[in-house]
Amino acid sequence: MSEKDRFLTAQEAAAELGVTLPTLYAYASRGMLRSEPVPGETRAKRYPREDVLRLKERKELRRDPERAAPKALHWGAPVLESAITLVENGRLYYRGHDAVVLARTWSVEEVAALIWTGERSAAADLFTGEAAILPDGLAALLDRRCLSPIERCQVAVPLAGAADLSAWDLRPRSVMRTGVRILRLLATTAAGAGSPASDSIGSDPIAAVLQSAWAPTRPAAAEALGAALILCADHELNVSAFTARCVASASATPWDVVSAGLAALKGGKHGGYTERVEALFREAGTAERARETVAARLRRSEEIPGFGHTLYPDGDPRGAALLEIAAAMSRDSSTGDLATALIEAARELIGEHPTVDFGLVTLARGFGLPERTPLALFALGRSIGWIGHALEEYALDRLIRPRAAYVGEIPEERPGEQAGTLQET
After folding, report:
1. Cα 212 from chain centre
2. Yes or no: is domain 7-72 CATH 2.60.40?
3. Are 386 and 261 in contact, with CB atoms under 8 Å apart?
4. Residue 67 in 3-state DSSP?
5. Sign, Cα dihedral of 122, 127, 130, 132
6. Which tens digit of pLDDT belongs to each residue from 305-354?
7. Whether the predicted pLDDT of 78 surpasses 80
8. Hey, where are the domains in the chain?
9. CA atoms of 75 and 188, how far apart (whole Å)
10. Which element (helix H / strand E) includes 47?
């Protein structure tokens, strides 16, 4: 989207909202709408198109809820409240902290504590204690080469959940302890270390567990993997987070919440999108073929995966951070050259910026991680957010139950209507 398309003039904004100019100015003065000076003009103001459309949706929701509600399900107006994540002005925040800064300075455990409790200092207490136990037979079941990392997690989570009776205690402190057990199981399982020497899962830092399995000769990879997990920890009300909240609202255990979240995340339009990006890298192969590959996809009317995000018209900060980390820490210059060439081709041909999916794949390839690990990183990081959303839903203690607008065939005889009488003869 061009700079011009991203903003509306005062007259255009007022017309879009159906209000007068004085009302528009009042919205801006009350903080309901952002405005900024027009470059090169002294008094004129311009208004972000996204802000105007969001305010318009809120007005429609109040005026006609039945008509506006369906729009809210597709990048529309907020449909529920959460104190976890804010996406604003092209940045991502967890409980008021810039996620990119957290990825560079905090541990995975500290960010989990922040999202679950609001306090970084809670990490030491939460993540210290008895190691989680693998259910009998799980290690042997997971030792199958045909399963991808996320598929191993999908097998392990319900089995471990069935053996964890304390997970039915839905008080906040117990939910957080269950969350720790879930994270440790996921890390060990996704890493492919599902059959350790003992039947217990240790208490090593989560990023270190992944590094020791995926990049054993690269200790520095632990820092990069930790950053990736943090940047994937939550992203407002995406489809897996909404799924997690629905399941939690039914008073299911955190294990069931995460199991449902994994199923949603695996879809090709969500976390599974990373596998499309991996395919793009394989198709291009080298930096020299990057532009040709992107152009060929465009000629075939195919998508260019890994570029363009609705919430970040100027570029996904998560993707940018991951690319910087990969460039600084990876020794694989060929991956960096290929990623740069793909980015330049996408910017030139479609005018889009790399997303978190592109950053995850670049990072994984740069450190020589196994294929399909970007999705596993995404899933393990996002499970932190799912537990956070579950905590909010448990506290609300209400069932998420929207109504559907029926558009099917109308019954011949509907309740409340008197059946026709027989004609007299």
Report:
1. 25
2. no
3. yes
4. helix
5. positive
6. 999 998 898 899 999 999 999 999 887 789 999 999 999 999 999 999 99
7. no
8. 7-72, 80-118+204-400
9. 35
10. strand 45-48
